[in-house]
Structures are given as C-alpha cells and as structure tokens.
Amino acid sequence: MIKVVHGDNDRAPYGWGTFASRSLVISGGATLIAARKVRAKLLKIASHLLEAASDDIVLADGVAKVAGTDRTIPIAKLAREAYTQTHRFFFFIDTATTETGHYDPPGTFSNACHIAIVDVDVETGHVKVEKFLVAEDAGRIINPMIADGQVQGGIAQGIGNALLEEIIYDENGGILTATLADYLPPTAREIPAIELHHIETPSVNSLTQAKGLGEGGTIGAPAAVINAVNDALSPFGVEINEMPATPQRIRAVLRKAEKAA
Amino acid sequence: MSEKTAITVNINGRDHAIAVEPRRTLADAIREDCGQTGTHIGCEHGVCGACTVIVDGEPMRSCLMFAVQADGKKIRTVEGLADGDKLHPMQQAFMDHHALQCGFCTPGFLMLAVGVLERDPDISNEDLVDVLSSNLCRCTGYQNIIKAVRAAAIEMQKR
Amino acid sequence: MSDKRKFIGRSVPRLEDRPLLLGLGRFAADISFPGQLCMRVVRSDVAHGKITAIDTEAARALPGVHAVWTHADVADIPQIPFRLTGLKPLEPYQQSVLAKSVVRYIGEPVAAVFAEDPYLAEDAADLVALSIEARPATTSASAPPGQYEQGLTTEPGVIQKSYGDVDAVFRTAPAIVSLELSIGRHSGVPIETRGAIARYDEARDVLELHGAAKVPHWNRDTIARMLKRTPESVQLYEGHVGGGFGVRGELYPEDLLVCAAALKFRRPIKWIEDRREHLTAANHSRDQSHHVRAAIDAQGRILAIEDEFFHDNGAYMRTHAATVPDLAAAMLPGPYRVPAYRALGHIRLTNKTPCGTYRAPGRYESTFVRERLLDAIAAKVGIDRVEVRKRNLIGKGAMPYALGLDTLGTKIVYDSGDYALLLDKALKAAHWDELQEQLRKRRKNGEKVGAGVAMFVEKSGLGPFDTVRIEVTLDGTLEVITGVASIGQGVETVIAQICADTVGIDYTNIRVIHGQTDRIARGMGAFASRVTVMCGEASRLAATELRARALSAAAELMQTPAETLDVVNGEIVRVDAPGPSMRLADLARTLPDGLSAEATFESTHMVYPYGVHVAAVRVDPETGSVAVERYVIAYDVGKAVNPKLVEGQIAGGLAQGIGGALLEEFRYDAAGEPLSVTFADYLMPTAREVPEISIVVSEDAPSPLNPLGLKGAGEGGANPVGAVIASAIDDALQRPGTVTQLPVTPQRLKAIM
To answer: What are phi and psi of C87, to 5 degrees?
Structure first.
C-alpha cells in the first residue's frame, strides 16, 4: 500500500507546491529517484536477511525473492525489521528505509491539437458545441484515467471561457456578475462528449518521461471553439474575435451583417 | 438536562456571555464555555486546588462554585497574569526556581499565591506555608514552590 | 568532541516552562474536536460477582445519548496483553476491556455511555442498572489462595530468585534475625486524572489517540494489533502530561474503548475520568507483606537473606505482569554483600483495584524490608545502625559487581559505586554526630525525637535501545526527534543540553520532539528512569554524527580541512586562522539532502545509581502524628546534566515517599469496598508535611556504560523513605523494631505506643 503525504510542511521536505502543471514532472521525478534509492536499500536489507547477493534478489509483488529459489521475505517484513531492529543494520544503512529524492529538471512542453464542431443558432446567437476532439502529446502517460480527467476538465473550462464566463463591471467599477446567476460556468448540458487521443512522445527532459498537462484544455479549447464559431458564421461574412462569444455578441455581429445586406 | 440560565462572567477583564445549567461548575464554565483551559480540574471536591482562580479578589476553588454564582463577578485566571509577553513576577519566580515539573497544579498555585500576596503582602513565612499547604503538588515536593513564592513576594513589593 | 561544556552540568532554565506558566498547556482535558462524543464508564459497585443483567434502556432513552456499550459490543477485542515481565502462566488473568460476566473489583468497567456532553454522559451512566450476584470477596493476599475461575487459583505465579545455599547457611548461622513487615497499598496519584481522546481520520485512514503518555510506541503497536489495524494506521500523540509516576500511560481498558468507539461511530470520542474513578480504577501499587530473615555472624555481617513475600496485585494482571514482585525480589540485597539469597514472591489476586508500577517499584518495598532488617541486625548484635551498614557495604573495589540475579530481561551488574563514600557524605551533610547529641538532649527533656538512616541501590537506564534523529531546520534550529515521552520531568531541556554541547549550538535553539509515533517509527518511552541515560546517549551519538557531517561538508565548501573547523554557537568557524564562517542553517540549505543524522544507542545492562537518606522525626505522643523535622538525601547519579532538575526529581520523590510512609493508603473493608475514594480519605502530603531537604547530588561514580557517565535520577528520592522514617520513629521511641507496617498513621502509632 502506498500512501502519499502532501501539504504538510511538518512532514514533507521543502517543496514548491502545485502550480504551472509541475507536480507530476518534478515531484514524479523526485519520487522516482527516492523510490530507486529505497529499492536499493531494500535489496541490501533483503540480501542481509536472505544471505544472498543483492544482484540475486528480485523485488516483485510485495516480496523479495532470491532468484531461482523459493526463499522469500515479504517487503513489509523487511521494513519492519529495518525500523525495529535498527541495531542490526545501522552499520551499513542509516535511517532505516527512508530516502529522499531531489529533482530539478528543465521545463517540458506538451502540445495538442483541438477540434471543435459547433452549431450556431443565428436566431438566438446560441452556440452548441456538438463534438470535441483533442489529440494531446504529454509524453508518457502515467495514469490514463487521471490524464483524461485533466484534459476533459480543462476543455470544459475552455468552453466556458469561449462561450459563457465573464466578469463584468459597470462604469462605476461595481461588479455586476457577483453570483452564479450572472457568472455562468458551464453545466453538463454545455459540454459534449470529448474524444481524446494521446500521442506519447517520451520527454527527454523528464525522468519519468511524462510532461505536465493540466492546462492544455484551457489553452486549446477557447481558440478551437471560437474558430469553429467563425467558421459557422463565415457564410454571413462576419467574424467574432472576443470572448466569451455570448449569444448577445453573436447576434450583434449578425445584426451588423443584416444591416449591411 | 435542565434549563440553561444566561449569565455574564468577567474573566481577566473581558465579559463572557454564556448560558449554563444551574449545576454547571465555574471551573467547567471557565474552561469549556469561555475557552480558558489554563484552569485545571484535579479532584472536583475542593482538596487539590488545581482549579484555584481569583474571584472578586479572593482565591477560590472554582470546582466548588457554580457558574451561576459567578454571574457579574470579576474573575482572574492564570491567562491574565502576564502583561503581554512579560511574565508576572510570580510566573518568573516559578521558572527561576524550578517550581514546576509537569505544570498541571501550577496555575492553581500561581493564582493562590498571587491572590494571597496581593491581599496580604506582609504575610509571615509560617502563614505562607500554611496557605500553600492548601494546594497539592505531586511532582516538586513543594520546596521550590515555597522558594519561588517567597522570591516573588519580594519582587511584588517592589512594584 | 571538544571538552568545552557550556550546558551539560548547568541548571539552565527549562524550555518547557513558558507555555505551562501562561496556562497554555495542552493536557488531555484541553483537547477537543468538533462533533465529539463524551464517554463515561459505568463501573462495578460490587467487588466480586456475576453479572446477571445490565439494563441500559433508560440510559439510551435519554436525549443526547448516542449509545451504551456492554461487553457484547467489544467482544472481539482481546484482553489487554503484558508489556513487561509477561510470563505465560499469568496470561489467563488479563483484564478485558469491559467485564464479560464476572466482575472482580469495585471500579471495574462494565459498560460505557457515549453522549453529546460529559454531564449528560454521567446522567446516563447513573441510569444504567447493574444486576450483579455478589460472591465473597477476597481481600487478603496472604491467606491461602482461592479460586479465580475453573482451573485457576488466585495465585497466578510465584517469583523465585536465589543464589548460594541459603538453607545450609541458616542451619549453621551464629544468629538469625526475623521480621514480619508490610507496606500499605498506595500509588502515584498524579494531580491530572487520566484521559484519552480518539479520532478517526477517514481521509488518511489513521486512528489517532491523543492524550498518550509514557510508552506511546508500544501502546500504538498494541492498540493496532488489538483492533486489527496496521501499526502505521494508528498514531498516538502526547501533549502535556500532568505527572505519570508509572501509573499513567499504561494501556488501560478506557484507551481501547475510545479507540473502538471512534472507529465505530466515526466521531471523535473524549474521555476524562474524575478523581473518584482515578482512585479506584487507575493502577494501585506497593501492597506487599514480607517475612524476611537474615543469618548473621557475631559482628552483624550478613551471611544469608531469605525473604518470602505476598504481593497483592488486585483483581487482574495488567500490563506490568510480574514486574513489581520481580523487581522487589531482585533489588532486595541493595548495596550490601549477601553471600546467599533466596526470595520467594507470591503473586496473589484479590478483589481490589489491579496494580502496576509506581516510582521505584518493588524497591520502595524491598528497601523498607532490607533496611528494617539492617536495623534489626544492629539491635540484635548491639552495634550502631550506621556501623552495621558500614560492615556490610559492597566495597568500591568490587565494582562491577554481579549480583547473581536478573530482572527486566537483564543481568544485574552494579556498574560503579562508592557506597561507603556516599554514606560519609550523607552523614556529614546531616551533621550526624551533632544531630545525635541534640536528639539525645531533647529526648532527655521528654521529646520523642529520633533519626534514622537508610541506603539503597536504584536501577535506571533500561534499554534495550533508543533511536534519535536530528535535523537542522531552515531557521538553524535543531529538531531532535526522539522516541521517548515526557511526564513533566524536563526531557526537552536535558536532551537539548546534551545536543547543544555536542554540536556547538545554544540549547535554546534546540527543539526536542517526543511522544509522537508518526515522527519516529520506534521508541521505548519514559519509565524506569531511562530517558537521560538511553535517549541522552543516543542524542549524543546522533549529535556527534551531525557535527562530523557538518564539518566534513563545510570543509569542502570552505576549502579547508575539517580538523581546522569547529561549530561555535551554531556557526562553523575556522579555529586555526580568522576567516569567513558559515551558519549551520546555510550549510544545510546547500546540501541536497539537508543536514541530519540518526543514531541508536543499545544497552543490555542497566546502570545503578545509589543513595543514602537521613531523616530526623518528632513523634507527638498525644496524637501519634509524626513530623519530619530534617531530611538529607545524598544521591550519586554519575553525571548530572541539569543539577536543579535532578534535585527536583529527588525532592518530588521524597514527597511521594513521605506520603507512603505516613499518610497514603488505599483501604478496603471486608466486602472489598474501597474506603479511600476522595482526597478527604486518601491523604496526600501538602507543603506542611514535606520538610526542607538538603540534597547532595554526587558524581563520584559515573557509569562506565555510557561516555557521559549518566545514571537516571527519577526514583532515588522515593526509594528508601519508608525505611528511613521507620528507622527514625524507632529511634524517637527508643524501641528498635517498632515500625513494621507502612503507612505509620497516627492511629497505628498510638496503638503501638
């Protein structure tokens, strides 16, 4: 069982927190480094307890085993011995089975292509996003389910940015969108099924070969949606270049075209 | 559970408006209803003195008083002894003379000693030991407490 | 390490004091969590009987009552296991968390009420109706054993320790001295009662127990095992602790109840006992009666000692199992040469509160027995009480001295000691000869005054290990993470002093962590006067390693050999030439893994401090009361890290010793009803009862078993107090052998006089 402790500065080594899609890349790399050290330590302890060379020991399925034999010892027992029998091990290992990893990589650059298909109701100005597809390359995907969740969540926010969300002030600086009746985040109605494709180009700048991807949805989606809206409006010879492309703004742009016509 | 009565107790200069059952002890009210946990409970039958606070100038066993009896009264607890960051001479003397070990009986002794010395600054040594024998301490064996109180008495005279 | 000792040996002010003086301590009763339920235990009001029914209906119907538990609700929790000296034959006598069908002492937990607030919980507890079919109660430990249950008697075991051919010696001895002695039942009785708050953190899957003390790691491991959780998923937290004395911090039924309830109800559970409960449910101690004989020669030298004793352990065998009688048997010989020895300790169960250790466990009792014996030998042979001791003392040259006995898993080997020298120091400090003169004069005037002397060897520094990790934090303070516990004795200060001198930093820049099972994976806690010795040495080792690492890393950065560097006041400086220095914090920041070190000190042998007490008393013939007029304690601790704290421990121990000698007793009537249930009945010493003491802290015999020479100081103040006061009373009455029973209450003394 693996427990991750975070956000407790009494227990964790000094850290820089979570922002800029950094956690998996940097913390993941540091974790890998520390885990490899722990592995080496476990092999040392196992080799001592099983009386075999470290190289002959295999760690798998929670057990340390001398390859080619049935001599095993559960990893839980290795750890317990290391902690409660420190006096037997301290001459070649210190701090039991604890290790620290440090990692400071250069940045990574995920990239993606977003495609949106929209249906614009020219009577009302309402835009429905019918379909959304994204192909994303965030290096090696550690947990596809979680990665997909980040992309989907980001796209939802991107759609919100493109079509719904705006903080509006009046000329006196009074905020007009101070409740959720006025500031409109997207609901389940506004977000279509999203088709997701991943390309995994392993990152050379990241120990885990993973890149961060939390923000890609909000980067690509607004542009894709607005491009799609403009594509829909192109027969009218009009363009909309501001966000959110609210029904009022779309209607305004269409009215101009109608007048011109 | 019986009807609660609204009372106001003034602790260390601040009013606390609370609602308590008639049977609620002052000690429990100070600790739980007013959030001042420095006053400790050791026996609830008035012998150990860990619950000693000063009520209208007199050291009292807060475990033997009902909160409703303290309505409108001025109570001083250990939390009100220090002056900001500056320790009261009694607190300083306890530190200087190693007059506390676990610290559980300490607030009671502090309030007892401060209360008595404020009332009777020239108290004789004999009488002082008599007064200090009102409270129980299980860690120090009392000698350092007596030394500390004597030293604080001198400091307090200077003020 | 350089020889400069800035902090070790100085009575520096305690780091613990400020929050305690400001009333900002966090004792168990001060800890509360939102949504908590309060637990109140329903206890047996019958000393021995079979439960026929427990009616909880009225209690459960009270608004605000969440649940009422009986044994059925905790049936899958095993009985509380042994922590020390656990012998297999004793296991059937362990205690269940709630009584299953038989109750064995008044105060035994039978049910538990969980309610919204403590007053309500107590109201509900009063409504729980217990139907118990009373059985005859056993109140005597020396009467022949009866039945505990089918197939088990009330004598769970007998401790046997011996060496030499005792029978042969007694057969041919020139003289024999024989005494019947008893020590009254009393105990630690800290001013803070017990308490526990359990909380289950669902997100982390961690069961937290707050209000822990003494042995948090063992308790954590055991609670985890008993509740079928992994050790990592149970964490214990020690806040401030209002005195322990051996009594607080052992695993009690109430600890398991709050934990099980927190898991079941998914709400924090708070339990704080009241004083009445404490006096009937927390461990009692000291209840022993001895029949001791010594074979002596014409000069009063001991040839053999034989002791048969009955140890009243109350209703069950709790976590200490056979520890107390084992220690009594093992430490009885004390500082004297005893060529042949046999002790037979009967562990007996009675229908009284179960027992455990209390400051100087087994030794308060056996010192009383041994020192009474020495006085009796003196009287028999017609020599002075000081002289008889001198004749029997183990000489300095005999150290290390193997006793031929073992206890607590170690062989008893007195590591160092100059007993004769300390006796001289004590007598000198007491102005013994002038004192004798004064007392003689006063006795001539009709006053009943007298003096006594008693000697003892204590044990301390019980291992098997302590581990300490030290980390340099970002602000340059040292965080010392230990596996010990604080019971108010000054751990945070003393360990800081040792680390301060070893690393080269001010002690006020050191923070010592204790009692938190989630900060260090293993620990042994605080008992048996072990912390300064075991944790002190582990800290010194870790600090030494830390300093070495710091200098080695700094040497690289500062481009100079490590030998030219030193750490002074938290700064790494060059000692051979002036030049730039570097703060420890800054060094730590440059190192990828920071700056830390960990060390373990192991020990299979205890270390043995020793002492001499001298007391002068005045007996009031009218009332039978005894006033202690003068008291001198000489105690050798090898090395005193903080002399004032050592004196504090001694003074505190003395006060408790006086309580046991003159005042404190848990009395029971024939039906097993406890009679000492409030402080009006159980009399604790006040400032009036404790005299001014002269304390001589001696460092004549540092222990060779750790580099600083440390021995523990916690129990030397209490050990011989019963013995020395008895001796002084005999002298005041000019009747050797008068006092054979403790406590010497006025009623008892009047009856004797």
So the answer is: -105, 140
Which segments of C109-233 does DSSP mark as H helices, in order?
118-127, 166-172, 216-226
DSSP C670: T
DSSP state of C562: G
Chain centre distance of CA C283: 12
Distance CA C391, CA C298 (A): 12
Q: Give the side-chain half-sphere CA count within 13 A for C689.
A: 25
Q: Is the Cβ of C248 closer than 8 Å to some Cβ of chain A?
A: no
Percent of chain C topping pLDDT 90 = 87
Query: For residue A74, is the peptide bond before it cis, meaning its omega torsion is within 30 degrees of 0?
Result: no
Please report the sign of the dihedral spanned by the C-alpha atoms of residue A150, residue A154, residue A155, residue A156. positive
Question: Strand pairing partners for A60?
Answer: A63
Task: Say how far residue A167 (Cα) sits from the centre of its chain.
Answer: 26
Its domain, for residue C86, covers: 31-136+193-241+248-281
The residue count for chain B: 159
Rounded to whole angstroms, the maximal C-alpha distance in chain C is: 86
Task: Please tell me whether residue A58 adopts helix, strand or coil conformation.
Answer: strand
CATH of the domain at C613: 3.30.365.10
Which of C212, C392, C431 is closest to C304 using CA atoms?
Answer: C392
- How many residues does the structure list for chain A? 261
Check if C686 contacts B (Cβ < 8 Å). Answer: yes
Separation CA C354–CA C104 (nearest Å): 9
Encoding tokens for residue C49?
């009987």
* pTM for the model: 0.90
How many angstroms separate the CA atoms of C706 and C364, rounded? 27
What is the pLDDT at residue C5? Answer: 77
Domain containing residue C202: CATH number: 3.90.1170.50
Contact list, C485 vs chain B (CB under 8 Å): none
Q: In angstroms, rounded to a whole number, what is the distance separating the alpha carbons of residues C584 and C554?
A: 9
Q: Yes or no: say if A125 and A247 are a contact pair by the CB < 8 Å rule.
A: yes
Contact in structure between C636 and C613 (CB atoms under 8 Å): no
Residue written as token pair 């559960």: A74
Does C602 contact A87 at a Cβ distance shorter than 8 Å? yes
Query: Residue B22, preceding bond cis, omega within 30 degrees?
Result: no
Q: Percent of chain B scored above 90 by pLDDT?
A: 96
The full set of domains in chain A, from first to last, is: 1-104 (3.30.365.10), 111-260 (3.30.365.10)
In-domain check, residue C158: no
Q: What is the pLDDT of residues C663-675, one digit of tens each?
A: 999 999 999 999 9
Question: Which residues in C lie closer than 8 A to residue A74 (C-beta atoms)?
Answer: none
- Residue C379 burial class via C-beta count within 10 angstroms: exposed 0-12, middle 13-18, buried 19 and up: middle
Examine residue C13 and say whether the peptide bond preceding it is cis (omega within 30 degrees of 0).
no
Task: Return the pLDDT at A126.
Answer: 97
Q: Give the residue carrying structure tokens 């890290």.
A: C641
Rounded to an integer, what distance in angstroms lies between the CA atom of residue C343 and that of residue C357? 19
Q: Which positions ≥6 away from C702 have C-beta within 8 Å?
A: C416, C638, C639, C708, C709, C710, C711
Which chains have 3+ CB pairs within 8 A of C? A, B
